[in-house]
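Helix-turn-helix domain protein, Novipirellula aureliae. Tokens?
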Amino acid sequence: MSETELSTRLDRIEILLSTLIEQEQAKEYYTTAEVAKMLQRAEFTVREWCRLRRVLAEKRACGRGRAKEWIISHEELDRIRNEGLLPIQ
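Tokens:
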């Protein structure tokens, strides 16, 4: 392999790596702020969806005393994107 071929391959690899870094990587759980940003809604709106059970979410300790924050699973985020919110109960 010549030097120019090697250089070309390395350039392509760098471009692919930077593309992967820029892509949003799937996490197991997201905060309400992250979901709000992905769905282009206000964080307050997402918290209300959780509180009203329009989104299946869980509470977890967040390091701010006894207060807990909502977390939303990746599967639930996909469901919201594909099917929309659950009906008000």
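Residues 24-89 form one domain.
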